[in-house]
Amino acid sequence: MLPLSKHQHIERLYIEHHGWLLAWLHRTLGCSHHAADTAQNTFIKLLGGSVVTSQIASPRAWLKTTAKRILVDEYRHQKIESLYLNELAYQLAHETPAPSAEALLMVIETIEALSSVLESVSAKASHAFIAHYIEGQSQVEIAHALGVSTKMVQKYLTQILLKADSIGVSKP
Amino acid sequence: MKNKHTALHVQAAEWIVKLTADDPDERAQARAALAQLTLENTQQAEATARLERFINLAERVSASAPSSAEPAQAGQQPAIVANTLRQYLHLHQQSRSLAKIRKPLMLWLLMLLPAWGLMQTAPLAVLFADVRTTAGVYDNQQLKDGSQIRLNPSTALNVHFTASQREIELLAGEVYLDVAKDKQRPFVIHTRQGQIQALGTRFIVRVTPDDTLLTMLESRTQVTPGWPTLKTLAAPQVVSAGQMVRFSADKLSNLPDIHAGMTESAFKQHRLVVQNTPLSEVLETLQQHRPGVILYDAKAMKQILVTAVLPLDDTDRALDLLCENFTSLTVSQYSRFFVTVNIQH
């Protein structure tokens, strides 16, 4: 028998597990539309991803993990969007012109990319990164505020850059 | 997909960080080292550029205000981005540390404080609730005991039914309950601020992060603010048909009486009936019923009192109606998901 192509593999996964995934998502989310969207996005991720589908040992566990990851990303997006808009409304008086939807989306997506890395490091490290590269505080100032050495601040920042690189966030 | 960083790669990251060090000598040294690296090793040069891109993200987002027409806004953008990130990370940290604590203690937490333990993990708890509606979506359900439950939009709850107990945890939003009679099994609703116990009756419960609002339509319930095993700070109170109470964990206050029949039919017809209610509260309710954001100055809106009947299933029309009645109010709709409400003085 010829080995199956990638698309044939995905087709088979779809036929065998789509219904199960949908049922699980429906139970978890309690909304059939949201469940259908998420199931669809999970398979789209398979099509576009670099995963070798024939090597997934237990497809259901993999699909469940991927679907969960999609939900977490969605949750982060919603949260950051509302936090940013609130912050914008709080900081700015009402006379400023409303930002365009595209410009808003770009800023929000960038903040999401930053937080997907910053949420996996310590609170001190993420504070150092935000203070230095966003608020423009000097490394010595930050060291003073955190009560650590300047060397330690540099170590935090280095750790974050390497983390971002290994997660693959800063890919163009 | 985790790849081990080579020593050279780690070194490159250190140099990049030193490019913005306080000491000018340190900066010059780092610049020279990176320049040399780029010349000598093209492969590592590429990897180094990749490392710098994450910093570029941070710099770009703080430099580019979404509406750059306003120079004042450009100056505030770093603070806005930084605050957004810090608030998000704080939320994330909270839900994670609670998840960590929850695991080993799960057993006794579940036995002692069923509502409390799960409630604290919100808002992730909302995402994984048993029953959930999103903005603009209504739902009717019949529970196993025959009780009817109607969910307003943006509502989430968990159902725990056993042979001896009927328990519901209301995590977010608003529900109408028509509780089936069962003398052996009391029906208990847990919210963040306390519990409501019923035998067989009809009522509406609404939760916000700060308080719970109970509207009795028929018969009676008993409200106990606070959590069952902790010290109760406010005394339990019996609430009867036509009464409305608002409670937090340590305080319970009676609101003006309502007309039970009218309130019930308004709820079923997706209508909001308010009487001398601050506009900020009305907008908050409208927000729950529509996707996207409504931006407004809550402090200023609190001063305006509204008496009206508004359609909740058509929030655009509800906003129009508010505008017609308050001429000083302007509503600007930039997209379906982004509406601002302003007051002109």
From TrEMBL, chain A:
InterPro entries: RNA_pol_sigma-70-like, RNA_pol_sigma-70_dom, RNA_pol_sigma70_r2, RNA_pol_sigma70_r4_t2, RNA_pol_sigma_r2, RNA_pol_sigma_r3/r4-like, WH-like_DNA-bd_sf
Domain RNA polymerase sigma factor 70 region 4 type stretches: 112-162
UniProt xrefs under Gene3D superfamilies: 1.10.1740.10, Winged helix-like DNA-binding domain superfamily/Winged helix DNA-binding domain
Lineage: superkingdom: Bacteria
Domain RNA polymerase sigma-70 region: 13-79
Keyword terms: Sigma factor, Transcription, Transcription regulation
Family: Belongs to the sigma-70 factor family. ECF subfamily.
Protein's UniProt name: Sigma-70 family RNA polymerase sigma factor
Biological source species: Methylophilus aquaticus
Lineage: Bacteria, Pseudomonadati, Pseudomonadota, Betaproteobacteria, Nitrosomonadales
From TrEMBL, chain B:
Domain FecR protein: 130-218
Organism: Methylophilus aquaticus
Record protein name field: FecR domain-containing protein
Keywords on record: Membrane, Transmembrane, Transmembrane helix
Membrane-spanning intervals of the chain: 105-129
PANTHER family: PERIPLASMIC SIGNAL SENSOR AND SIGMA FACTOR ACTIVATOR FECR-RELATED, PROTEIN FECR
Top-level lineage group: Bacteria
Cross-referenced Pfam families: FecR
Family annotation (InterPro entries): FecR (IPR006860), Ferrdict_sens_TM (IPR012373)
